[in-house]
Amino acid sequence: MTDTLVFCSGPDPFDAWRDALAPLLGDDVRIEDADAVTDPDAVRFALVWMPPEGFFARFPNLELVINLGAGVDRLVARSDLPNVPITRLSDPEMGKMMAGFALFAVLRHAREIPHFEAAQARKEWAYRHPRAANEITVAVLGLGELGAMAATEVARQGFDTHGWATRPRELPGVTVHCGDDALPDLLGRADIVVCMLPLTPATAERLDTAAFAAMKRGAAFINLSRGEVVDEAALVDALRNEHLSGATLDVFTHEPLAPDHPLWTLPGVLITPHLASVALPKSAAPQIARNIRAVQRGEDLVNEVSRMRGY
């Protein structure tokens, strides 16, 4: 019987992923969209991004779940997730995309672009002299695969770059701080704070009222990881009272962001629809195919997820 890989992702095009994977998997793995599965019993592999509740129950012989992205917090928290291995994507192109977006967001605040956008709306020529990059302190919270690439790219541009992580590590141009005790001081010295923390039980609403109060007055905040890491009400308060000068936000507790959410209209805030980094079929397909072959051959998986750690 031919094995089947089922694909389920609202924002991703099935045809592009099928065309990238088919030459690597050959004739012994059928690739089918979730709405067009011909034989549910033949499905051994699932390539998914936020599938609907009850999705996995349709496939009793599932042996591998491949998350269509680097973040797996929503997947591992599901009550209907079967007891099979889970892998995530670790695609260099995703890392480059995230690093580029992080640098864009840092530069937006370092060069005070919100000030000029507001001046343009008033038709006002409002010059502000630029600061040198080495005079601006950037703190990147979370130095996993994507966070480390983001911090390294920011440091490469000459910013005084610091990182906060659970364990020590060496990154070129980045001063790394570890542990809860180090966070308040780091927040207090940073001009720009970049959140790259994964969502785990330990990081849920980790950036709360106390964390925003610890930040330097006039600092800017960037969130490119998960909305649930931030207490959004506390963030709104910090922006409204001008403790923070602005924010660049790509992720939110509830997505899409509700039309009546106050973040839409706060000065200095840029909202983007969770696109800082996305999986690209051509670059990600080889590692997906490798893990499918590993299951078929009884070999070790790459980028397997720990359910206990949540990543």
UniProtKB/TrEMBL annotation:
GO terms for molecular function: NAD binding; oxidoreductase activity. SUPFAM superfamilies: NAD(P)-binding Rossmann-fold domains. Residues 105-276 form the D-isomer specific 2-hydroxyacid dehydrogenase NAD-binding domain. It comes from the Bacteria. Keywords: NAD, Oxidoreductase, Pyruvate. Transmembrane segments: none annotated. It holds the Pfam family 2-Hacid_dh_C. PANTHER family: 2-HACID_DH_C DOMAIN-CONTAINING PROTEIN (PTHR43333), D-ISOMER SPECIFIC 2-HYDROXYACID DEHYDROGENASE NAD-BINDING DOMAIN-CONTAINING PROTEIN (PTHR43333:SF1). This is Glyoxylate/hydroxypyruvate reductase A. It comes from Roseivivax sediminis. The lineage of its organism: Bacteria, Pseudomonadati, Pseudomonadota, Alphaproteobacteria, Rhodobacterales.
